[in-house]
Amino acid sequence: SVTSGGGVAVPCATAKPHDVLALTGGAIGIGGPLAIGAAVAKPDRKVVSLNGDGSAMYTVQSLWTMAREKLDVTVVVFANHSYRILNIEMGRTGSGNPGPSASKLLDLGDPKIDWVSVAKGLGLPAVRCETAEEFDAAFARAMAAPGPKFIEAAI
């Protein structure tokens, strides 16, 4: 499962010098808009946007803006086909395990989102990675070339 809260900063601590932009509140979908802002503000820097698939669905139109403006953003969507943060929040209510009807509301697998087709349809070159090795290769290619790119990481 994916959530892009403070836990993202810890594994990135040993990366090359970088900035981490995140939302301080509890909204969903900030990754794409933050990446656009960062790329417009600092066009000389690579921007990487890490997103869960549920979050990315909230602001999917940001992919089109990245393509239109030719922003140097690599978008990674971790596709687990679930609104993980909403599952977490439901658990915080103390209501116990959600039943089948509530669970279906938090599922993104029916119909399954074809992220590569979505990204390509909005103007970004896109690939799907099923393994860590595929992801490493796709990410290296994305970092080596300018312009917007999209990587779906199947998890």
Quick overview of this protein structure:
With 155 residues, the chain is of the alpha/beta class. The chain is 39% helix and 15% strand.
Characterise the protein shown here:
By secondary structure, this protein is α/β, with parallel strands linked by helices. The chain has one domain: Thiamin diphosphate (ThDP)-binding fold, Pyr/PP domains (Rossmann fold), CATH 3.40.50. Helices cover 39% and strands 15% of the residues. It contains seven helices and four strands. It has a four-stranded parallel β-sheet with strand order 1-2-4-3, sandwiched between helices. Strand 3, helix 7 and strand 4 form a beta-alpha-beta unit. The mean pLDDT is 89.
List keywords for this structure.
alpha/beta, Rossmann fold, 4 strands, 7 helices, globular, 155 residues, four-stranded parallel beta sheet
Head-to-tail CA distance between termini: 8 Å
The tally of beta strands, per DSSP, is 4
Task: Report the mean per-residue pLDDT as an integer.
Answer: 89
Helix-strand category:
alpha/beta
Query: Treating each run of at least 4 consecutive H or I residues as one helix, how many helices?
Result: 7
Class in CATH?
A: Alpha Beta
Helix content: 25-40%
- Helix-strand string: HEHHEHHHEHE
